[in-house]
């Protein structure tokens, strides 16, 4: 069963009525969404401090927070439904969304206020998750880069901690993305044209509007060629070591000097993970063969998903792509943003 959403002046005339999967009550329509992730053991697209949750569990076992005037917030499942609905209309059928959550807010119903924690039944517990990220694969959009299968993927991020729940109803903050995902490791590769940044929405119609603006202007083939081109630029071990050393040095520079350089948002732990990946990653390390800017991007993305909280994940993922593209430009003597500093 679906709910038809036809907000005035929201979706362009080329789309018309948008059929929104009613995730809050009945789940996704089998005609629009297919379970095709390839088994339960596929790698997670984000790992740090997160846990998997099913759409059914999100729908049935999680309360929906309100503002101080008891006005409902947009539920996580309704956010997911709005984004997937627009994506299905623009790109075609999608897989069931893969969900990751963190920072649970745990409570209990009033009648259980005097019980010990170990005496609570499941019906007496309440929970909602402050932060949630999801992604869903576009069934028809599959390709290869450097011998690895990639899928076009859409998704979003939401953190209740960004919303002013202590006040009266106000716009709520979300992030939406579209980009290619490497199947072997589930690394997302996001560029600026595939990430919405923070969007503020009052209703699901607002979310659909922003999703439509992002998805309708995104060119999957052009984006694929940009990423595929990274494999044509080789990095020597000496150059990789120079990059690692400069990343460490950059973090210790005075603020005024650091602000003159391109931004790299990953800290020491992430850089350490990149170094370990260079030595031992079976898919993108030095033993894989020729080490290129494509490998550098994947090592950075691996570090992002291992060390980033949900609310910082999209920004850092995009920053990793910008960094790999910047290093490529510097190696090809086409750098006007200062990335050659990392290679000295």
Can you tell me the residue ranges where pLDDT is under 50 for at least 5 consecutive residues? Answer: 1-35
Report the β-strand fraction as a percent range.
15-25%
Count of DSSP-assigned helices:
9
Domains, number: 2
DSSP E strands, number: 11
Q: Report the major sheet.
A: 7 strands, antiparallel
Average predicted confidence as pLDDT: 87
Order of helices and strands: EEEEHHEEEEEEEHHHHHHH
Question: Based on helices, strands and strand pairing, what is the structural class?
Answer: alpha+beta
**Helix content class:** 25-40%
- Rg calc: 21 Å
| Coarse morphology | globular
Distance N terminus to C terminus? 60 Å
Report on this model:
With about 350 residues, the chain is of the alpha+beta class. It is built from nine helices and eleven strands. Strands 4, 6, 7, 8, 9, 10 and 11 form a seven-stranded antiparallel sheet that branches. A two-stranded antiparallel sheet has the order 1-2. The chain starts with a strand and ends in a 13-residue tail after the last helix. The N terminus is likely disordered.
């Amino acid at each position: 069963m679906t709910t038809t959403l036809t907000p005035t002046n929201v979706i362009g005339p080329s789309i018309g009525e948008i059929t929104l999967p009613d995730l809050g009550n009945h789940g996704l329509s089998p005609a629009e969404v297919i379970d095709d992730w390839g088994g339960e053991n596929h790698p997670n697209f984000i790992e740090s401090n997160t846990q998997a949750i099913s759409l059914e569990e999100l729908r049935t076992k999680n309360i929906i927070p309100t503002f101080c005037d008891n006005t409902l917030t947009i539920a996580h499942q309704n956010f997911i439904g709005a984004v997937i609905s627009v994506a299905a209309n623009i790109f075609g059928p999608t897989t069931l969304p893969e969900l990751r959550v963190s920072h649970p807010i745990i409570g209990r119903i009033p009648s259980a206020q005097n019980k010990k924690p170990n005496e609570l039944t499941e019906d007496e517990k309440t929970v909602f998750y402050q932060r949630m990220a999801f992604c869903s694969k576009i069934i028809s959009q599959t390709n290869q880069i450097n011998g690895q299968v990639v899928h076009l993927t859409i998704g979003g991020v939401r953190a209740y901690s960004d919303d002013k729940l202590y006040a009266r109803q106000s716009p709520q903050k979300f992030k939406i993305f579209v980009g290619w995902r490497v199947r072997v490791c589930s690394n997302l590769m996001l560029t600026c044209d595939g990430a919405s940044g923070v969007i503020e929405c009052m209703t699901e119609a607002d979310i659909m509007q922003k999703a439509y603006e992002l998805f309708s202007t995104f060119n999957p083939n052009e984006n694929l060629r940009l990423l595929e081109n990274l494999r044509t630029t080789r990095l020597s071990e000496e150059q990789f070591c120079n990059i690692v050393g400069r990343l460490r040095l950059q973090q210790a520079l005075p603020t005024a000097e650091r602000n003159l350089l391109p931004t790299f948002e990953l800290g020491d732990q992430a850089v350490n993970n990149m170094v370990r990946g260079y030595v031992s990653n079976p898919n993108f390390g030095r033993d894989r063969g020729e080490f290129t800017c494509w490998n550098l991007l994947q090592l950075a993305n691996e570090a992002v998903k291992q060390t980033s909280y949900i609310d910082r994940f999209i920004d850092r993922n995009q920053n990793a792509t910008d960094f790999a593209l910047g290093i490529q430009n510097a190696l090809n003597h086409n750098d006007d943003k200062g990335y050659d500093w990392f290679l000295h």
